[in-house]
Design a protein that fits this description.
heterodimer, A: 177 residues, 7 helices, globular, B: 252 residues, alpha+beta, Thrombin, subunit H, 2 domains, six-stranded antiparallel barrel, 12 strands, 28% helix, elongated
């Protein structure tokens, strides 16, 4: 029994690499290297990581990963440690939805479809951010939704272009069961 | 098989996943409540002593500092003549920009000095060209700066020529808009904008930018688009001023 449970646990190296890659996706956020920017917007690295993680996992695992990375991104961004608007909502939904998509067997597991999923999830997570801003009411509504168009397009295009680069090494890290 | 047995099996099967999930989220919440202090310091550590080509910036900086000192001395002498009491900015630290905003909806920068050099939240951030923002929070070796282009940034400013007052609000696009208080302000394109003496957050008289165009039909009062002097989107280094008490405005 004990042996069974131990063998089902992932290896320490695998866990470490997973944690480090997730932290690296956060560390890439404040960086702006040449070719990474489109209209001042950088790729949404945590979103790419969450999609790559969730593709072969359950909705719950996708949700937890998304919420975790979202809270950490909030910590890096939100002034004064505020909780709202939170990236956790968008990333959590993106993780859960990505995992559910896989169940339908509609989408093949290759990096092109991952790029497409990232594009869609970027749009969804930015929309959830815009909704939160609208509810909070800190900014004029018209400005929020104008910003939303600009940010969504730039973020979705850039993130989906960079997605294969993140997905391929990560999919090697997590071999199929 | 009893219901209890089923529950026990389910628990045995998923214990590690559930505990792992709860643990990871709890850790993230902890990091969030400390504003990712650890992550930001780590990021700064990884960047190491990344110093830009200091030959250019240093010489320009020295030139500017000399000018500033000269002006400060002159200013102090004039103020003594007028018996004008004012606290000068406490300290100035020059530092590099180590990162940009980590979220699309914000306009922030991370700079490479923090509380270890005496930077406090609220410090004023200047760049070649003038005002760029103020410090939101600090760790020992990083500070997070809210840029004036962020939609949540509001700076009290005035038109240098006519003393017309207003509030400079970020638009989230690298542009800023000046919302006047007055219904009929004396202003025209090309007018220079400085921080207002009524601002409690910024010292008075810092150069901000130039009026580009004016929308006279805006409600409730006219608005002007302001072109900032400082290249906010391409900053490489900034000056941090610890700004303490508000100077007495019109001391006798």
């Amino acid at each position: 029994m004990v042996r069974n449970r131990l063998s089902s646990l992932p290896s320490l190296g695998g866990v470490l690499a997973t944690v480090l890659s997730a932290l690296a996706s956060l560390a890439l956020l404040p960086l702006r290297l040449p070719g990474m920017e489109l209209a001042g917007i950088a790729p949404d690295w945590p979103l790419i990581w969450v999609v790559a993680w969730s593709v072969k996992r359950t909705a719950w695992q996708g949700l937890i990963a998304g919420v975790t990375l979202g809270i950490l991104q909030d910590a890096l961004v939100n002034p004064g440690g505020g909780w709202w608007p939170s990236h956790a909502l968008g990333l959590g939904v993106a993780g859960a939805l990505t995992a559910l998509l896989q169940k339908d067997r509609l989408i093949q597991e290759d990096f092109i479809s991952v790029a497409l999923i990232v594009f869609a999830m970027a749009a969804i997570s930015e929309t959830l951010m815009a909704l939160q801003w609208s509810v909070l009411g800190h900014r004029p509504l018209g400005q929020i939704w104008l910003d939303h168009q600009r940010l969504t397009l730039a973020s979705a295009i850039l993130s989906s272009l960079w997605a294969p680069l993140v997905y391929v090494p990560l999919s090697r890290l997590w071999p199929e069961d | 098989m009893t219901r209890f047995e089923l529950l026990r099996r389910w628990w045995q099967r998923y214990t590690s996943q559930i505990l792992g999930g709860v643990g990871v989220v709890a850790l993230a919440v902890y990091l969030q409540t400390t504003q990712a202090w650890v992550l930001r310091e780590l990021y700064r550590g990884l960047q190491g002593g990344r110093v830009p080509d200091t030959r250019l910036t240093d010489s320009r900086l020295q030139e500017l500092e000399t000018q500033v000192q000269e002006l400060q001395i002159q200013n102090r002498q004039l103020q003594q003549l007028l018996n004008y009491q004012q606290k000068m900015p406490l300290a100035t630290v020059a530092t590099t920009v180590v990162g940009r905003s980590a979220g699309h909806w914000w306009h922030q920068i991370w700079v490479g000095e923090g509380s270890a050099k005496g930077i406090t939240p609220g410090s004023v951030v200047l760049a070649p060209g003038g005002l760029v923002g103020r410090v939101l929070d600090v760790t020992p070796h990083t500070s997070r700066v809210l840029l004036v282009t962020d939609p949540s940034s509001k700076v009290g400013v005035m038109v240098n020529r006519s003393r017309a007052m207003g509030i400079l609000v970020g638009q989230g696009t690298g542009q800023t808009v000046l919302e006047f208080f007055d219904k009929n302000p004396d202003v025209k394109p090309g007018d220079r904008i400085v921080t207002s003496p009524f601002s409690t957050i910024f010292p008075a008289g810092i150069a901000v930018g130039q009026i580009e165009s004016i929308d006279w039909r805006a409600m409730p009062a006219p608005q002007a688009t302001v072109q900032l002097y400082a290249p906010v989107e391409r900053l490489e280094w900034v000056l941090l001023h610890s700004y303490g008490a508000k100077p007495a405005l019109l001391a006798p």
